[in-house]
Design a protein that fits this description.
Layout lengths: L8 E2 L3 E6 L5 H5 L6 E5 L14 E3 L3 H13 L4 E5 L2 H13 L10 H16 L4 E16 L5 E10 L11 E8 L2 E9 L3 H7 L6 E3 L7 H7 L4 E2 L5 H40 L8 H12 L9 H23 L1
Parallel strand pairs: 1-11, 2-6, 2-8, 3-4, 3-5, 5-6
Antiparallel strand pairs: 6-7, 8-9, 9-10
Helix pairs in contact: 3-4, 7-9
Length: 325
């Protein structure tokens, strides 16, 4: 049976929107298809959200995980996290509170794993997903006229894990200009014919953006026959154990081969010195049989071979000392 399949996968749109406060991120969420479930960590949508939309007000990452599963079980049309930045900060604060000297490099693994698993969970939802993200300034260290490095703002970026932008189908940067709300497309997964028909390409600026602008992509995604599935470490770790098992076996085989070569050379040297037990092939086979129960070195365990090799070396040292007396 082939591991490969054919045909388009059925998907739902996953959208990330970032920008400064008041730029229209939450408003875009109100245009997502009904029924909508919200996880609101800042009460930013209280005044504009439809009263019929269920909402979970929390800043707990665990609540977010549980809320996602509840929304998934309810077969909602849209799931909205507004903003997800707060929940990543909750993870960081939790891990940092358990450290003595602040976050170290190794501590980030504790933050990244649940963050990555959450991403996989919302990617696998049979629903449209919309995440809002805070915006933060992006800096680059540049030498000033005195030759000293100083931070210089070069733009803005999402206040989230840097890999977050790889997961969604669409990334929008919201902003306000002359009192009007806009979103520029920074990333979009779209079929070429749909892009040509709609003009939805990277760099396109949309005034008063809504989900309706991206409906042609959602309709194309809905044509798939089998739902796209994303795997994370919970699914792949068991499978990938075989990869490391193979590597371990290769290491054991290499160690086996090395120690056997060392033993054979040492036995040959002892036979040349006419040391008892190693004077000829017959005696060597007898010594091996006593040590391992077999004359074939490749049938013995590496640990037993190492002990045998030490004994052979000790016999050689003793024989050399006796010959010098």
């Amino acid at each position: 049976m082939s591991l490969f399949t054919k045909g388009a996968k059925k998907k739902w749109l996953k959208i990330v929107g970032y920008g400064p406060g008041g730029s229209g991120k939450t408003t875009f969420g109100t245009t997502m298809p009904e029924s909508r479930y919200w996880v609101d960590s800042e009460h930013s949508g209280d005044h504009i959200r439809d009263d019929n939309d269920p909402v979970l007000h929390t800043t707990s990452f665990k609540d977010l995980q549980d809320g996602l599963q509840e929304a998934k079980a309810a077969n909602v049309a849209s799931f909205i996290i507004d903003p997800i930045t707060i929940f990543r900060e909750a993870l960081i604060d939790k891990v940092e509170s358990e450290t003595k000297y602040g976050l170290q490099f190794k501590d980030w693994a504790k933050i990244k794993k649940p963050d990555k698993r959450l991403t996989t969970d919302w990617q696998n939802m049979a629903a449209h997903v919309y995440l809002t993200v805070h915006e933060k300034d992006e800096f680059e260290m540049v030498k000033n006229d005195k030759g000293k490095l100083e931070p210089v703002k070069i733009g803005v970026k999402p206040d989230a894990d840097k890999k977050l932008i790889y997961a969604p189908d669409i990334v929008l940067r919201f902003y306000v200009e002359n009192g009007k709300h806009f979103a520029v497309i920074e990333k979009i997964r779209i079929r070429k014919e749909i892009a040509l028909k709609t003009g939805l390409t990277v760099g396109k600026v949309i005034e008063n953006p809504t989900f309706e602008h991206f409906k042609p992509i959602a309709e194309a995604y809905a044509q798939g026959t089998e739902q796209a599935h994303y795997s994370d470490d919970r699914e792949t770790s068991t499978k990938d154990e075989a990869v490391f098992d193979d590597i371990d076996k290769e290491g054991e085989q290499a160690a086996h081969k090395k120690i056997i070569g060392q033993i054979e050379r040492a036995e040959k040297k002892l036979s040349g010195m006419k040391v008892f037990g190693f004077r000829d092939a017959e005696e060597i086979e007898g010594t091996r049989k006593t040590a391992f129960g077999t004359t074939v070195l490749s049938d013995a365990l590496v640990t037993d071979l190492e002990l045998y090799y030490k004994g052979v070396c000790d016999a050689g040292i003793k024989a050399k000392q006796e010959s010098n007396q």
